[in-house]
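Budget justification aside, the reviewers requested a transparent look at the raw inputs and outputs of the sequence design task funded under Objective 1. We therefore reproduce one unedited record. The lines immediately below are the structure tokens for a 61-residue chain.
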């Protein structure tokens, strides 16, 4: 079974098996936000995915 490449480009798997990805809503219109909020948006956030979906899209992980 093939791995879905769009997921592998956007997600990172930690040593413990958690999925990490970018926080949503940080693509544009960031000029009026404070610097603290901009930096917080660049941090990785935990990405939740059910077992069934994870097995379907990321079978090797």
């Amino acid at each position: 079974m093939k791995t879905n490449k769009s997921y592998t480009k956007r997600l990172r798997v930690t040593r413990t098996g958690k999925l990490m990805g970018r926080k949503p809503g940080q693509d544009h219109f960031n000029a009026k936000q404070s610097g603290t909020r901009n930096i917080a948006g660049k941090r990785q956030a935990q990405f939740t995915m059910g077992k069934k979906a994870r097995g379907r899209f990321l079978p090797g992980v």
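Residues 27 and 57 are 24 Å apart (CA to CA). The chain has a mean pLDDT of 90. Computational costs for records of this kind are itemized in the attached budget.
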